[in-house]
């Protein structure tokens, strides 16, 4: 039988604490990078890349492009939270974020965000192409420098924020070497329009948090959400023809067109329900259908496109 000495016990305990600390820090940064947004970005970037590819799709190039773009997404998210740490502290749903709780310092997070941004731009510049790198940098700056500070100043922040939100498929398209023709603008328009009912549903669900933090979100105004409901319904109606544009631009065929009509119609129905009765439950229902509509459209779009270009 053997016994650990006090010094050995201390060493083991110290190593355990260090391991837990490193795991906790890694978890904090994963949380700050917003994995669900990163996953949606991967889907939309991949869609743009595939649709812009010639007959042969370079999957390795897509993997490199995703590496660079996801670094920019992570950088945007981290720097956004650095700038919003004070307003996040006033909201219940964000009060335990790593920066707010002090688990990660603002200086450290800023450094990590900048390093990720430089690295992401470098990957796109060196291994993909200059146009994708420039578009990625513009997207990052628009999100961090324009959208983030505008949230405390004007309800136009939603429109401004929808621009970088619609850029992922454009970045994928450019990474594949696609020309900036009608196809890429159809993808941009689709994501741009889709975002408004989606975001307004979130804004309505957390309107009290936004008001308490002083954020100028449309649903936080004291009209019982009437204006937010109208805007959500208008954009959901616009989404019906916009969602079918890829078929008219030659990117997709009948299957996607039919799917787009059904899903966009369903999206509009949920937006109308929300506009007529602005409850938290209706807002959550609208959010859920939005999270079904976009990935399904991307999936059908890619599946049909690959079927059209792959023999058999």
In a few lines, what is going on in this structure?
This protein is mainly α and 312 residues long. Helices cover 79% and strands 0% of the residues.
Describe it for me?
It is a single chain. With 312 residues, the protein is mostly helical. It has two domains: 33-180, Orthogonal Bundle (Tetracycline Repressor, domain 2); 181-312, Four Helix Bundle (Hemerythrin (Met), subunit A). Helices cover 79% and strands 0% of the residues. The protein is built from 15 helices and no strands. The chain has helices spanning 6-32, 35-52, 59-83, 85-88, 98-101, 106-128, 130-150, 157-165, 168-175, 182-205, 207-213, 226-243, 245-248, 254-276, 280-309. The chain is globular and about 50 Å long. Mean pLDDT is 88; it is low at 1-5 and 7-20.
CATH architecture of the largest domain: Orthogonal Bundle
State the helicity in percent bands.
over 70%
H/E order of the elements?
HHHHHHHHHHHHHHH
What count of helical segments does DSSP give? 15
- Estimated structural class: mainly alpha
Shape: globular
Number of domains: 2
What attributes does this structure have?
312 residues, single chain, globular, 79% helix, Tetracycline Repressor, domain 2
Helix-strand layout with pairing:
Blueprint: H1 6-32, H2 35-52, H3 59-83, H4 85-88, H5 98-101, H6 106-128, H7 130-150, H8 157-165, H9 168-175, H10 182-205, H11 207-213, H12 226-243, H13 245-248, H14 254-276, H15 280-309
